[in-house]
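Chain A, query sequence.
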Amino acid sequence: MCIRDRRSSRARFLTGSNKILAMFGFLLTTIALVAVTVAIHAYGTVYWIRFLVRRYANPDGDFTRDNALPALIWTAVVLLMLHLIEVIVWALAYMLILPGDQLAGFEKAMYFSVVTFATLGYGDITLADHQWRILSGIEALNGVLLVGWTTALLFLVFQRCWKGLTQGHGE
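Chain A, predicted structure.
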């Protein structure tokens, strides 16, 4: 009886250590995905701001009346393209790391990723394995972070456009 208890506790310990290793791998995967998408957004927005200032801004950093609307429109388009690239990264990750055919095909993985990234959460597609469901939650948090970043940048551009549009009024 005592021998069986020792063996079963050792088996539970080994099973527990396998779970810890699996969780560590999962954690590294999520950190890598978040880091990649944040890097995409960081490099994309820094490049776009530099281009925007060179192309549309006056020496004060504001946008002139003629350049305000194109600057705002192109900023929105570029930021949406960055989000699309980030969603594609998540969709490809789902296809590569999820066991089985939970998200069979790129279209299904992309749809799931867009719905998750945008925090819509329709619930028509869910991940079957409990351990991987957390991954979609982290994608949603990542989406909130990056959409907030986009909102801040759009507000900055709009503010610079507003200053350029109102220059000369009220003088």
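The chain has a mean pLDDT of 83. The two ends are 94 Å apart (CA to CA).
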